[in-house]
Amino acid sequence: MRAYLGVVLAVWACVGGAQRSSDPNDIPSNMNRPIMDSSKLPDIPLGNPESMKTDTLAEPLDEEDFNYELPMSDAIASHSAFDPIFMAGLFEGDIQLASESDLASILLGGPRQRSGIADQHKRWPNARIPYVISNSFDKLGRATIATAIKNFQQLTCIRFVARTSETDYVHFIKGDGCSSSVGRVGGGQAISIGMGCGYVGIVMHEIMHAVGFWHEHSRPDRDKHISIKWANIKPNMEYNFHAYTWEKVKSFGISYDVGSIMHYGYTAFSKDGNNTIEPRRNQKGVEMGQREDLSNSDKKKINAMYCKGTPVGVSTSPSKFCDDTNGYCDEWALLGECKKNPVFMEVSCCLSCRKAKQNDVLGCRDQEKYCSLWSKKGECTSNSNYMALKCKKSCGLCPKSRRNLPPSELIPFVSTLT
């Protein structure tokens, strides 16, 4: 099998495996690339981590996990020689491939899916990703994963749901290094968050793979935006830098993004610490190799793949777990800001807006059992702010009456939200 692949690889290298793109603006970019070793395929681990078979599951993420306050220094310098995504030693560092035939197809088959998967069957139905989580994560590990998930749910239309009986799902596991398959591959598939991978940005990078995205540097138009320093790459690691054609690529019409969370850093697979990738032009405020957050183009590509037309940063439905991040959320929701300023309020005052929506559906009601008694004692006047929030019915502050409250009893909505 390996000998046969070697012959095919030699032929493919001679004719130029990265064929002419159908994109008229693409630049043929394989002329100066080293020819791959034709004697063998890379010897890399394949399939899910073995530890996944015997892993003990924990309860799904809960409100405590989503509300846990993470350390402030949760980021990796983009110029750092250390990038956790390479620790697993898989294809391109962190991509789990199911079999040797998948690896051969990628390296020998010429064009393949890049940036975003084109195959609809490999996307998650209705943008919902069922998940389970290993019992091996401590409180900080669970909170890190929860924060990464919350970012996706606040900024894109992707939704994570605790698995019940779904056949296809992701399994957050503490494996060897950081890794994930690309897209929905069928059955349980690991998202490994091992030792050294406990950063929100790293978890988001791996989730992005599972959602259906490859590394940005492998797009066929990359050579217009970056320069690969082949002489600085570790021997036999050059295959991690090959780009392919547009035939199966889904870029969704979104430009190449050096600042994508899916882009390699400057010294990826460097043999001596020198740069292996350099941007062709400096872009102010853009960091190549950042592992902090989804870039604007990352968010656009996700929504283009799963919910075309949905603006980024807007949740199309409330997440299962949400909370308020501002002490005035109750008041703002009471003043109708959930409808007036939906983008800000969905992110900052999710819980209060959900309660306000329930009040609209169920009718105005008291939230404390002693509201009627407090009202009779004059608390609606002497303790007006609290009573307006908790005892609207007893104080006569249901929607029609609420409009007649004097301005002195309303906490003004901050100007930054308008």
UniProtKB/TrEMBL annotation:
The keyword Transferase does not apply. Disulfide bonds join 364-398. One of its GO terms (molecular function) is metalloendopeptidase activity. Binds 1 zinc ion per subunit. SMART domains: ShKT (SM00254), ZnMc (SM00235). It comes from the Eukaryota. The keyword Hydrolase applies. Keywords: Disulfide bond, Glycoprotein, Hydrolase, Metal-binding, Metalloprotease, Protease, Signal, Zinc, Zymogen. InterPro entries: Astacin-like_dom, Peptidase_M12A, Peptidase_Metallo, ShKT_dom. Residues 34-54 are annotated as: Disordered. Zn(2+) binds at residues 205, 209, 215. It holds the Pfam family ShK. Its cofactor is Zn(2+). Residues 115-308 form the Peptidase M12A domain. Residues 1-18 form the signal peptide. The active site is at 206. Residues 364-398 form the ShKT domain. Metalloprotease. This is Zinc metalloproteinase nas-15-like 2. It comes from Homarus americanus.
